[in-house]
Fold this sequence. Notes:
By secondary structure, the protein is mainly beta. It contains 6 helices and 25 strands. It has helices at residues 5-24, 63-66, 155-161, 188-191, 262-265, 351-357, and strands spanning 39-41, 50-52, 55-61, 71-77, 88-89, 94-101, 104-110, 116-120, 125-128, 132-138, 143-150, 163-164, 200-201, 215-216, 236-238, 246-248, 254-260, 270-278, 295-301, 304-308, 314-316, 321-324, 330-333, 338-346, 360-361. The protein has an 8-stranded antiparallel beta sheet with strand order 1-22-19-24-18-17-16-25. The relative contact order is 0.16.
Amino acid sequence: MFSSPALITALALATAASAFAVNANPLYVEEAPDHLRPYVIQHYKNSHAVTIDTQLYRFMVTGPSSENAFTLLATNAPGSGSLGVLPHIHRRHYENFFNYKGRFQLWVQKDNGEQQARVLSPGDYGAVVPNTTHTFQITDPDTELLGVIVPGGFEDLFYALGTNFTSGTDTPYVPSKSNGSSSAGPDPGMIASLQEFDVYAQLNFTERRDLVNGSAPSSATWHSSTNALGEVGEPYFVANGYGPKYLNSLHGYQIVQPLVTPKQAQSLEYSMSTISINAAKPNVTVPTYTLEGAAAFEVLEGLLTVQIGDYEEATLSSGDVAFIPPAVPFKYWSDIAFTKVLFIGAGTNSIDTQLIAGGKSWDYVTFPTQ
């Protein structure tokens, strides 16, 4: 069958337009775009950074860049002798705390229930569901706290409170010494006025300090045995490697450790997991995904290669973030033995949910030997 000259011209114009769009919008960016599009941000790029006291906040996924699917931010700071923010609740937002490196303490209390506290080390996770009083404290000198907040747009709070920051060296945070007693965040009078950002101060909250082996109450399970995902509407914690695990071997080995499933997310409809990926085998075809919701990868360990839409392949190392809009085809793989990523997906059937559905329950954080 022969193509008409008009059809050939139309196809040529479409191809040229697609190439122009890619060339005009490079995949690698310095900060999250102000509209929905694929992009990659490397670790420690300025990324709309602001400072609040000794804490430095970067925003790798924002409300505008994800059409309010979620916000992904990183907090880098030295250890402090006081809370990182005054205790408060969010009525509409689900806040997820994930430890990238260092240590920090997290306190949560839902309604009149018992206050829970944990010391989070790398890979540990804490879920702060709406209407949960919470606060945190950074304890190690080189700590990076990753926050995933659903829905997106919560970064506006930090823009209102913080001071714009740029660095010619991409330093993790400003190299100034903490006096050990400073408290980041607004004073009590100011935080009470921030209800327009869904922040409601809980100034009568007193954080418990009776932690034993990194947890309180003493009956809590933490770095000792299996941690279950939380009941709907309740805060919970998952220690690194101690939560549920699933092995998917359809296209090479992947181990999914869910942190939030659509069950916990309920009407907010998102999921969040770590995914450990074995090196791609020469005889295995890497699948292409097209999702109904936005998605993001942040590399925790190893090297991840992604190919998004018409863009060329990009290889991400630790701390780098790739964002994929809805309905944009993409694929991902690793060329080294072990890569681990933090994955966030909007909707009820994102990649981690699909991998779990197509896999089996697994007791280990490593791959089979064959």
